[in-house]
Amino acid sequence: xxxxxxxxxxxxxxxxxxxxxxxxxxxxxxxxxxxxxxxxxxxxxxxxxxxxxxxxxxxxxxxxxxxxxxxxxxxxxxxxxxxxxxxxxxxxxxxxxxxxxxxxxxxxxxxx
Length: 112
Description:
By secondary structure, this protein is α+β, with helices and mostly antiparallel strands. It has one domain. Helices cover 38% and strands 13% of the residues. It has a two-stranded antiparallel ribbon with strand order 1-2. 1% of the residues are buried.
């Protein structure tokens, strides 16, 4: 998430997203019998949170600002540590974005 001019609001944004997850997403996902999943969410200017995409939790799934090879990040990703809200303090450049993409998809994107 990148909100370079919104740093002072990040704690409330994190709370809004966590509330959405606990009240709306988790109860519904429990009915699907999926043991783990990754969500892409958007926080709208109105304060509403929407689900963009749901994927199975796997090391090939995009993790945004978390990295599988960092043990503490992996614990958050696996649900072994509490929810953690992170945001980018500045908008990344193209190379920074591509560095976090699985090589197969990176080749695909570069060839578009």
